[in-house]
Write a structure and sequence with these properties.
The chain is of the alpha+beta class and about 270 residues long. It folds into 3 domains: about 80 residues; about 90 residues; about 70 residues. It has 8 helices and 5 strands, in the order H-H-H-H-H-H-E-E-E-H-E-E-H. A 5-stranded antiparallel sheet has the order 1-2-3-5-4, with helices on one face. The chain is flat and about 95 Å long. It starts with a helix and ends in a 6-residue tail after the last helix. The model has no long low-confidence stretch (mean pLDDT about 90).
Length: about 270
């Protein structure tokens, strides 16, 4: 596991622990509400004017509060569990130091699958006149499984055999997308690190290791500056003591715009 993967695993574990804690809070609140409800035997109503009225109303309020807390905690637990399940499922991140190697492996896998799909269609076309058995034998000769061969020999709604044309086109588009990402990452790695931008009370740097454009201030910026930073996609990172966003040409241009506004006095550091 590289540093990025360790960070992702730690984040997933934190979210899972938080989800478990919120779930336990919800269960405790629901149990508390259920315990209070037992005092209202068989739906016993509040007896207005009776000496038990005050306690009954307090119990009813506590039961309502417990249920409200339980519902809120359950909602938080579900949201945290969804976030935990989503960690690492969004594909290869540019933050990953092994991103290029992973993308190359993904590209090789997609190209191999594309070649196999094209070979299946070519074999089916070549042996069309010889009939289904010859086509099936030709498919098996390619080294594919009986299941895949059977699927390829099953006509679609329009009577066509083999791999659908749209599937091949979609995979081709994905191959081009991966190739573009690899080229972009290589160009980014080869480009020189941008020179820092400094001004009164602030400094802007490109942190290649963190893959972030970062803005640091000598003091806590006022609300207007914070609003301007957020409007340009920057978010506060306590661990870095900086406002930052993922490094890109757009991020650097946004940082330059912030610097220009600071220098012009439109916002203050």
């Amino acid at each position: 596991m590289n540093a990025y993967e360790q960070k992702q695993a730690a984040r997933k574990a934190r979210l899972e622990r938080a989800a478990a804690t919120a779930g336990a809070t919800a269960t405790a609140a629901f149990n508390r509400a259920a315990a209070i409800s037992e005092r209202f035997v068989m739906g016993q109503p509040i007896l207005v004017g009776h000496h038990s009225e005050g306690r009954a109303r307090r119990d009813q309020a506590r039961m309502h509060d417990a249920m409200t807390r339980g519902v809120a905690a359950k909602r938080d637990a579900d949201a945290l569990a969804r976030r935990a399940a989503g960690v690492g499922t969004a594909g290869v991140s540019s933050d990953d130091p092994d991103a290029n190697a992973k993308l190359e492996a993904e590209l090789a896998k997609e190209r191999s699958a594309q070649d196999a799909c094209k070979a299946i269609n070519a074999a089916i076309r070549k042996h069309a006149k010889a009939g289904p058995e010859a086509q099936r034998a030709a498919l098996l000769a390619l080294g594919i499984s009986e299941r895949v061969a059977a699927s390829a020999m099953t006509p679609d709604d329009f009577g066509r055999l083999g791999v659908a044309d749209y599937a091949i086109k979609n995979r081709g588009a994905n191959i081009r997308r991966i190739e573009k990402r690899i080229a972009e990452l290589r160009a980014k790695a080869a480009a020189p690190v941008r020179e820092p931008i400094t001004g009164p009370g602030y400094a802007i740097v490109e942190d290649r290791d963190a893959n972030r454009v970062q803005i640091r201030f000598d003091a806590r910026p006022p609300a207007a500056t914070v609003a301007a930073l957020k409007a340009r996609g920057f978010r506060w990172a306590p661990s870095e003591n900086a406002w930052q966003r993922q490094a890109s040409n757009g991020a650097w241009h946004a940082a330059q715009a912030v610097a220009a506004s600071l220098d012009a006095g439109e916002i203050v550091p």
